[in-house]
Design a protein that fits this description.
With about 280 residues, the protein is an alpha/beta fold. About 35% of the residues lie in helices and about 20% in strands.
């Protein structure tokens, strides 16, 4: 059967993608950020999965205010990098895994979660920046990727508890797929940041690091944190962190398995007026 072997959590700051694309990774401002991913890039080379299930949020590239699915799974054979106003990022086309994606959609919908099935969409920095951070600048991404878009842009966003429970359903779906596949699940977005209003530029280091602590040690309780706390403590865009709960809910310890191993943890500010958080958990 297929199995989820690890979860990866990372911010997807668009300026990080620009720094990579423009060759600025060694600049003094950006060097500390990319140094925090050196372990991760080597780990990816040594632990290449067969498929990545990547949870992210679209930034008005595939969806607009005219149509906003709460949860959308990409079932296409490939996904092109989106033009976000200054042309697509110069990164490889994302190759999908239609068979596993369709199976997950079938299983999760029958498990009482409503998904929007998307057979054609472009993917923006929310998906491509994490791939660049973990994989560098290859001519092709190392494996197929299933995009899973979550609405954390326009309220109402899904609750942390809903996301956590969805992660459990995704794990059940993966484990019922009749193929020997090594699957990683990635949760992206966050950490604390606010892009507009009087609190623009807000960063809450203490809250961010407590979130990382709880994500590892007590994800069930963390899933009960209400939206208002994310907004108050982590800024209006801090709500993106509920997407990390999907990836965490898919780990084996949540289903009474052994605790995952913390392979890497990294936190840095600032990166374009946001906090960068990163964590790799490996199932025992």
């Amino acid at each position: 059967m297929a199995r989820i072997t690890a979860s990866v959590f990372t911010s997807h700051v668009p300026a990080i993608g620009a720094a990579i694309d423009l060759g600025k990774t060694a600049d003094p401002y950006w060097q500390p950020v990319f140094k925090g991913y050196e372990f991760s890039k080597q780990w990816m080379k040594e632990n290449r999965p067969d498929v990545i299930f990547l949870v992210y949020n679209d930034h008005a590239s595939a969806f607009s205010l005219e149509m906003i699915p709460t949860f959308a799974i990409g079932t296409a054979a490939q996904f092109n990098p989106a033009d976000e106003g200054w042309g697509p990022r110069p990164v490889p086309v994302v190759i999908g895994h239609p068979e596993l994606a369709s199976h997950i959609a079938q299983s999760v919908i029958q498990d009482d979660f409503d998904l929007t099935i998307v057979n054609r969409m472009d993917v923006d920095h929310g998906l491509t920046v994490p791939l660049s951070l973990m994989c560098g600048q290859p001519s092709a991404w190392p494996c197929p990727v299933i995009p899973f878009a979550v609405n954390v842009v326009q309220y109402p966003a899904p609750s942390g508890r809903r996301c956590f429970q969805l992660g459990k359903a995704i794990r059940r779906a993966v484990e019922s797929f009749d193929a020997d596949l090594n699957v990683q699940i990635w949760g992206t977005g966050g950490m604390s940041h606010q892009l507009q209003g009087p609190r623009a530029g807000l960063i809450n280091k203490e809250w961010d690091n407590r979130f990382l602590d709880r994500l590892v040690s007590d994800p069930e309780a963390l899933s009960l944190v209400p939206h208002i706390e994310y907004v108050r403590e982590a800024g209006s865009e801090g709500i993106e962190l509920v997407m990390w709960l999907i990836a965490r809910g898919a780990m084996r310890d949540v289903a009474r398995g052994p605790a995952p191993r913390v392979l890497h943890r990294f936190y840095h500010v600032p990166a374009s007026n946001t906090a960068v958080g990163h964590l790799i958990l490996e199932d025992s």
